[in-house]
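Hi again,

Forgot to attach this to my earlier email, sorry! This is the prediction with iron/sulfur cluster bound. I've pasted everything inline since the attachment limit keeps bouncing my files.
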Amino acid sequence: MIHFSDLQIVLQEVPGEISLCISATGCPLRCQGCHSPFLWKKDSGTPLTDERFIGEIERYRGMITCVLFMGGEWDMDDLLHKLQIARTYSLHTCLYTGLEENQVPLLLKKELTWLKTGPWIASLGGLSSPTTNQRFIEVQSGKLLNESFLPSSNRKAIS
Ligand code: SF4
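Structure tokens for the complex follow:
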């Protein structure tokens, strides 16, 4: 079962969406300079039972438009299950993973509206950096949406 360290409502991680964001613990990727090493320890934090997950969705129903998982792909069966639950509430779904896109199983992509891929590389920066290695895509169309994260003055530079 997925465990989480933090559960909050976020406005910027998925452009145009109000997201219930779950930070899963147990990340095995160990990116150098990781901003959240407390997420590395497997099964630390709180178990994300179905009851808890559904309870949070119900609590914010009508306000949230998306469920965002920060990791959790290492517990694939449970992540798929949770994404399917979110979709029964007609919510969009997003996963932030440090994996590359070709490492994300099709089975998982099918449950996702958006996907952020790529490990953290400090010298390249995150999604708000024009040099980032990370990619934010709309899964169904494959459209790259990184530009939505750039400060407006930098947007033309990569278009
Ligand atoms: S994927 Fe994210 S949480 Fe995991 S090690 Fe890399 S930066 Fe840290």
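The pocket of iron/sulfur cluster is lined by residues 27, 29-31, 34, 36, 39, 98, 119-120 (CB under 6 Å). DSSP finds three helices and eight strands in the chain.

That should be everything now.

G.
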